Amino acid sequence: MTGRSRNQALAAMFVVAALGANLLRADPVEQVDRVGPAAQAAHAMLTRLCDDFGGRVTGRPANQAALERLVQELRGLGLQPEVSTFSMPGWERGRDEVALLTPVARELRAVAFGYSQPAGPFEAAVVAIGNGRASEYPVGDVAGKVGLLDGGRGVPLRDIVRVARERGLRALLFVNRVDGGRLLARTGSFIGEPLAVPALSLTQEEGSWMQRLLARGKDVRVRVEIRSHCRPVETANVIVRLPGKTAERVIVGAHFDSWDQGQGAIDNGLGTAQLFALAHALRGERLRRTIELVWFNGEELGLWGSIHAAGQLGEAPVVAMMNLDMVGVPQAVNALGNESLVAWLERWNDARGAERLPGGVQNQNWFGSDHTPYQVAGIRTVTFHGPIDPAAVRYYHDFADTIDKLPEKLVHDSSAVITSLVLALASDSALRPERRAPGEVRAFLAETGIEERMRDVGWWPFPAPPAGSDRREP
């Protein structure tokens, strides 16, 4: 045995000892048997949610009915779910229509961005505006026209809308980046602002058709009518607490809501099922730390549920928050910029032996899901790198995000790894809760590369520096 191998073996022995009795399962079949029935039940539960209610847009009746069903299913496991209500700026999709008038008469497939407001009906000429930068607009007056975008790549949507309003555009049409007749439903604002100029997603095929016509100098006219509208809504998160011997917590969250074109099976029915599998597998488990499972609402419109939940933490001692957002079978675990967790996660992975994750431990923060509000609250966060079959994931936010894309085996294999890490986090007494102070949070968000993106969408939570400071503010 080499020195390196000996060190790895010693590290693995240390972790196994530290993780406690919950992980000391001599027979690996026992672990499989616990996750197997849990994953089967979770997949069956999600199938019922998807088929009985369809997409789960926050604030809509289908979301509320599906949430009530989830609560019933959890009670059926002998658990006591808590419904944590909150209010948020909501949005209701109406019958939004875009039709090509010239040179060919044709109804176009289109879906409005969240927080688009009623407009029209009106007819207008179409003008190509690249990715929406002011420098990409054509010379001359474009007031009263409809802007056609390549997709807005690399330009904050708030900036695209601001420039469009300043130039007098009446609507924005975004060409989808994926082919095959796909539409990408998405929010137009992360802070609940009604869009000053309505925005819609077009299929790549029809959008490219119009771009080719415009490039040849053809006149392209459309008819637009937006019936969607903003309104305040009251909704809720669902919380299940699996009690431990101490007040310390491990939080595991996944967003429950989805868009409405399909069933929201991959995004994020998968995470909803993984949380359910955890609840099923760990109910009655003797835990050192409390495990808090949270099904968030309002993620797709701006992380409203996780903002609410993180704001309710107070001074609770939290070891880590794990986010499950479209996590396939894990190939790596991601410390999301938390250097203090990297060595511990490496020891956990090494202790898995033949089942260790091939990608090891990553430490790359990213923006735009339910871990972000917890990071703002000073909590360490983790997730997994778990790719999903491209043939299934390409339909997320669209009509074909349906339960047939999500095999039970994916729920099982992913939940087995997730359960292992959750138990480890809940069991190791050597891993202590940590909470960053506000100044440390600001530095962390800047150093891990998400400050600019947070500013772009209006989420930067820190005040501007005093006058005369060397720190530049946009």
Can you walk through the features of this model?
With 474 residues, the protein is an alpha/beta fold. It has two domains: 3-91 and 232-427, Aminopeptidase (3-Layer(aba) Sandwich), CATH 3.40.630.10; 94-227, Glucose Oxidase, domain 1. It is 35% helix and 20% strand. The protein has 13 helices and 16 strands. It has helices at 3-19, 28-53, 61-76, 157-167, 204-215, 265-282, 304-311, 339-351, 371-376, 390-393, 408-427, 438-447, 451-457, and strands at 82-92, 97-102, 106-108, 110-112, 119-128, 146-149, 171-175, 199-202, 221-226, 229-242, 249-255, 290-296, 318-323, 332-334, 361-362, 381-385. The strands form two sheets. An eight-stranded mixed sheet has the order 1-10-12-11-13-16-14-15, with helices on both faces. An eight-stranded mixed sheet has the order 3-2-9-5-6-7-8-4, covered by helices on one side. Helix 6 links the parallel strand 11 and strand 12 (290-296). Helix 1 (3-19) packs across helix 8 and helix 2 crosses helix 6. The chain is globular and about 70 Å long. The model is unreliable at 1-30 and 470-474 (pLDDT under 50).
CATH superfamily of the largest domain: Zn peptidases
Second CATH tier, the architecture of the largest domain: 3-Layer(aba) Sandwich
Helix content: 25-40%
The tally of strands reads 16
Could you spell the SSE succession in H and E letters? HHHEEEEEEHEEHEEEHEHEEHEHEHHHH
**Average predicted local confidence, pLDDT:** 92
User: What is the first-to-last residue Cα distance?
Assistant: 57 Å
Query: How does the helix and strand content classify structurally?
Result: alpha/beta
Query: Which shape, going by the Cα principal axes?
Result: globular
